[in-house]
């Protein structure tokens, strides 16, 4: 049997937080290790405990749950999985959550069975990672499973890049419906070509964009970027 995944619950309503705690505690494979009722508490608690999973409400008294993700300093190797549990159902919130790597999104109110389904998905992802890490060499199926289970995880942008601009670039690339060069993206977003290329390269690094060189006449090929979804 795999070890229990450690869960932090972020919810401003104490009564709702208790219900969510009971839901998680009743589901095999998970242990609640902490609870936060504000954005400030959430950032501090997640940084301190380094849980595997966070149940995250967006509407918090000081700043939003999405801002919590922006303020975390977890390194790229972290296996933090976020399950959004929120009443936010506007398109901007959903897009921003997706851009930050939130792959599980539950709109309040929801049935316990809906949460259990997301928890099962998360447990399966972690089990795949654990099984695959036992050997140094992986076959293609194991590689595909790991890429699929980690591609949406949140990774803070490197120094010099901001979350807000990264989200604008990501959304512009998604809405384009075709591939774009750095110059074309820069014109859409209103920034320099060099800056656009840095953000696009980061999106490629974290699996949110693909890069395809386009060969034309003489000289270097033009890099074209596209959203994979």
From TrEMBL:
InterPro entries the UniProt entry points to: 2C-system_Tx_regulators, CheY-like_superfamily, Sig_transdc_resp-reg_cit/mal, Sig_transdc_resp-reg_receiver, WH_DNA-bd_sf
Subcellular localization, as worded in the UniProt entry: Cytoplasm
Species assigned in the record: Arthrobacter livingstonensis
4-aspartylphosphate sites (modified residues): 57
Presence of the UniProt keyword DNA repair in the record: no
Keyword terms of this UniProt record: Activator, Cytoplasm, DNA-binding, Phosphoprotein, Transcription, Transcription regulation, Two-component regulatory system
Domain Response regulatory residue range list: 6-123
Highest taxon above the source species: Bacteria
MF terms (GO), sorted A to Z: DNA binding; DNA-binding transcription factor activity; phosphorelay response regulator activity
Pfam annotation, one family: Response_reg
GO CC list: cytoplasm
The protein's name in its UniProt record: Transcriptional regulatory protein
């Amino acid at each position: 049997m795999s070890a229990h995944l450690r869960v932090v619950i972020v919810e401003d309503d104490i009564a709702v937080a208790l219900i969510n705690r009971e839901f998680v505690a009743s589901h095999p494979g998970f242990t609640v290790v902490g609870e936060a009722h504000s954005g400030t508490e959430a950032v501090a608690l997640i940084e301190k405990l380094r849980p595997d999973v966070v149940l995250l409400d967006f509407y918090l008294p000081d700043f939003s749950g999405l801002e919590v993700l922006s303020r975390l300093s977890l390194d790229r190797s972290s296996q933090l999985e976020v399950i959004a549990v929120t009443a936010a159902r506007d398109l901007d919130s959903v897009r921003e959550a997706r851009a930050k790597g939130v792959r599980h999104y539950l709109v309040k109110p929801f049935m316990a069975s809906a949460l259990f389904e997301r928890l099962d998905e998360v447990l399966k992802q972690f089990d795949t990672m654990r099984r695959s890490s036992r050997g140094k060499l992986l076959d293609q199926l194991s590689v595909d499973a790991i890429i699929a289970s980690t591609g949406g995880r949140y990774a803070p942008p490197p120094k010099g890049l901001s979350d807000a601009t990264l989200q604008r670039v990501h959304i512009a690339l998604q809405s384009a419906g075709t591939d774009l060069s750095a110059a074309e993206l820069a014109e859409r977003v209103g920034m320099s070509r060099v800056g656009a290329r840095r953000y696009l390269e980061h999106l490629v690094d974290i699996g949110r964009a693909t890069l395809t060189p386009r060969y034309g006449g003489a000289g270097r090929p033009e890099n074209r970027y596209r959203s994979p979804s």
